[in-house]
Structure formats: structure tokens, C-alpha cells
Amino acid sequence: LFGWRITYAPELENDWEEISGVAAWAEVITAITSVVASFLAVWFAIQVPRKIAEQQDKIALFEKRYHLYNLLLSCQSFTLALKAAENIQDAWKIFLFAFYSDTLDNKNLNDISYVSVCYQRVIHDLSLCDFLFNSEIGTGVLAIVKQMSYLLHDWFHVNDQDMFTKHKNDFIALHSDMET
Predict the structure, then answer these.
(1) Per-position DSSP letters for 155-179, written without gaps between them
(2) Which residue has the higher pLDDT, 130 or 98?
(3) Which of 69, 82, 110, 143 is deepest in the core (most CB within 10 A)?
(4) Is the distance from CB of 87 to CB of 113 less than 8 angstroms?
(5) pLDDT at 180 over 70
């Protein structure tokens, strides 16, 4: 067997050339094992951080989608409550309660600059939907954003009750169409 012989009997003699051949093969196997182990170490050193980065990306994407989902729920509650709004000031308050009820205090209810900042933040966040979801959902949400822009533009610039009522009804109708 590979030049190894049991030498308990003195009449048997070892073949040293075969023994050195086995040693050469042992060196080759050790070298190949070392190369494979090195390759595997490098491979895992690359793959493990890559998998961790992919998981972190998925978590970050989930957090952004979850935030957007909550905004869409707030948009739904805003639409339902908007039906009862009789004037623009009521609509401001409904908007603030729907989207910023956790950070709202009485001094902000009539502050148009605060409402404007909140509105711009909501519009910006909702506009990201096109990037975070498929195009069908993104298109629908962008339609809501567009109609909300018309509605809120009336609040800040026109202050016309008839125009507000028209855009309010258009916004409610669009949101109702989206639900079906």
C-alpha cells in the first residue's frame, strides 16, 4: 500500500523510493487543501458581509414602505374626515389631525406656515411611492398626490370656497375609486 510495509519481520525491507513518493503526494494534497481552505476563507469573508448588507437593505426598504403605508392609512382617514369639512380651516385641522396628531398642539392648528411644512412633507413622502412599490401602486398614489396638491393649493393660495368644495369632492371621489 503506497510503499508502506509492516516491518515487524526483519526479512522484509522497505522501499524508500515508494515511501518518498507517498511523501510527495502528501505534500501535494496538503498544498491543495491549503489552497482550497484559503479560497473558502476569502469566499466566506466576502459572502457574509454581502448577506448582512442585503438584509440591512431589506430592513431599510421595509421601514420606508411601512412609513408610506402608514401615510396611506392617514390619507384614508383624512379622506373620510374631509367629507365633513365645511370650509378650508376645517380641512386644515382635519389634515393636521390625520397626519400629525402625535405632534400637534393648539398653537399649530391655525399656523399656515406649519400646515404648509406638514403638507410639503406628506407630499414628498407620498411621492416616493413610485420608487418603493410597483408602477401600478405608484401611479395610483401619484394621482392621489396630484389631487391633494390641488386641494391644498386652494388652502394656501386661492381661499375660494367653491373651488375648495370642487377639489374636495374630486379628491374624495378619486380616493373612493382607488379603494374599489
Answers:
(1) IIII--HHHHHHHHHHHHHHHHHHH
(2) 98
(3) 82
(4) no
(5) no
Contact 118, 91 (CB under 8 A): no
Between the CA of residue 88 and those of 41, 51, 99, 167, 173, what are the distances in Å? 66, 51, 16, 11, 18
- Cα→Cα distances 49→17, 46, 83, Å: 49, 6, 51
How much is the mean pLDDT over the chain?
80
As given in the structure block, the three cell numbers for residue 43 are 469566499
**Mapped to the 3 state alphabet, what secondary structure does 84-139 carry?**
CCCCHHHHHHHHHHHHHHHHCCHHHCCCHHHHHHHHHHHHHHHHCHHHHCCHHHHH
Cα–Cα dist 91/156, whole Å: 12
Rounded mean pLDDT, 48-54: 93
Task: Summarize pLDDT for 112-123 with one digit per residue, the tens.
Answer: 777 778 888 888
Please state, in angstroms and rounded to a whole number, the distance separating the CA atoms of residues 126 and 75: 10
Q: Which of 126, 147, 120, 154 is nearest to 138 (CA)?
A: 126
Tell me, what's the pLDDT at 3?
A: 52
Find all residues with CB under 8 Å of 116, minimum gap 6, and list them. Answer: 156
